[in-house]
Amino acid sequence: MIVYTYILAFIIDQVKSIGSHLIFYLVVVRRFGFLKENVKDMNYKDMEKTQTENAIPRLQAQLLKMLESTFFETASLINIAAYTVFILQDLTLSDSFNFNEEVLALIDSVFLWIFAVEIFLKAFASGGTYLLDKFNCFDAVIVFLSVALNQRGVKAKGLGVLRLLRVVVITIRKITGN
Hints:
Helix 3 crosses helix 5, helix 5 packs antiparallel against helix 6 and helix 6 (134-152) runs antiparallel to helix 7. Helix content is 76%, strand content 0%. It has seven helices and no strands.
């Protein structure tokens, strides 16, 4: 029974892997990239311009436009406000009340991953110049350090204070427009 279970798990894993590679190839390579090996496959006259064009700058411009949209900025501020409430609760009320630590760690992980993805997208969209700003670099270090420590299960109150400071500075920068 164990051997059959192992074989079934192996087959499912291989099918999943092939499917994810196929989706990656179709979406990323064929849509946004250009491979010289694919030149012989594409003989469309109207597609010649898109074959030689690099789609990364176009993707970065669209991503930057999305990140600077009013909807995304509003969603980011709402996320920051919710995280502020969560951090304040964690720093002040966690000793007084008996909260489930696993649930708090999961909520913290979700917020941190959202912030990490946002930093990664902003760095990619700006071509890396986003991280040249000292505060943005400080912000990225705090977020990625928090993600790494959270994945390890380390809970540091001092890091919570830094994250709260990070939230305050982000809020001030969003309000003032700097």
